[in-house]
Amino acid sequence: MLYAYDDNGKLSSLYQLSKEHIEQLKKEKTYFCPTCKESLQIRSGRLHTAHFAHFPSSNCERKHLGESEYHESGKWLLYQWLNRQGYDVAMEFFLKGTNQRPDLFFTVGDKRIAIEFQCSSIPPDIIEKRTQSFHDAGIFPLWIIGKNQYRQKGKHQLLHTSFHRSLMYRFHNNFMMYYLDVKAQTIIIADHIQGASTTLCYATPRFYSLKSFTFPQLFTSASYPSFSYLNIWKKSMYHLRTTYHRGVGSEERQWRQYLYLKGKHFTLIPSVCFLPVPSQSIYHMKSYMWQTRFILDHFLDKPIGDVIKNEQKVRCTTINQYQADPIHEYILLLGKLGFVEKVGSGEWVKRKEIQFPTHIDQALEEDKKVMDFLRSETNVLL
Ligand SMILES: [Zn+2]
């Protein structure tokens, strides 16, 4: 491991120390494991970064943890960063109530905060379980993702898998997430996250050097997005209708088959089956797939005046417990477009039929109309 308590009880690290300095410490100091409190040895050589190690006789759980150097140095960076700002930070502090040992733990006023620096992609249900146990204990969980999970594609797109979706926050009407670039010692805040596909999102990343960035700044509101979301949306709509896609995934194939069995073709879905809803970024299914299903299963067969229900409850909760409801957002948009109308609380009735276009030109013209309408409703997206 890269850090340990010295004989004065101070958490110390060998990170970025000179060889000479380390040799000196080897002779002069004794170090102790933060977890089991046993004494440790310093290992340094040509092949490895200098680190602390348990003696062979030790039974400490950390011995078998196999944490990567990247993870450890990231934790150490965050520890120092918070320490410099005057926070009393504990590393791997065992939280009895939760049976967890978050990477970092500290208190701000009456708020208790646990930081997890997550460098490897783990299943969303594990993230959800750990997040819930923190919330149950009244602790705010701050998940910071390793830069190794940050992939930028083009100017505005980021890798966005189920792992990323499970680590999103919602602050200031904005979906966002946090990354740490250990090498550059930089925090990256991905802001204005909007769903693009099942593996990509649109986002506006902001970069901050740890040297001049403070903890409260993590939660300040972002500026405007660096892209026009509607323009990108319009392009992907056009792409879906006009480009032949070979080798699509099984989910897409099933969706096309589903449409086919209903006598429809995927390039001729109505424009309103491809509406940009804010919570798309946290929903696992492509927007046009679930919207088409909603229209065909819950809208099309109903007579005008019938009640349209939102019975499907999709689980889309951010780490800070914001319950997103993409289907409800979708019905709101259908309302703005005049297809449904709200009567009473939570109840909507059908007001207008949705027509399926019969040829591409008609579909593209309808897309343009819907886009122009959404553009006039500037508050729809952000
Ligand atoms: Zn130990």
Automatic annotation (TrEMBL):
Record-annotated Competence protein CoiA-like N-terminal domain positions: 15-61
Domain called Competence protein CoiA C-terminal: residue spans: 233-364
Pfam families in the record: CoiA_C (PF25166), CoiA_N (PF25164), CoiA_nuc (PF06054)
InterPro entries with a match to the protein in the record: CoiA-like_N (IPR057253), CoiA_C (IPR057252), CoiA_nuc (IPR010330), Competence-induced_CoiA (IPR021176)
Domain Competence protein CoiA nuclease-like: 67-221
Name of this protein: Competence protein CoiA
Lineage: Bacteria, Bacillati, Bacillota, Bacilli, Bacillales
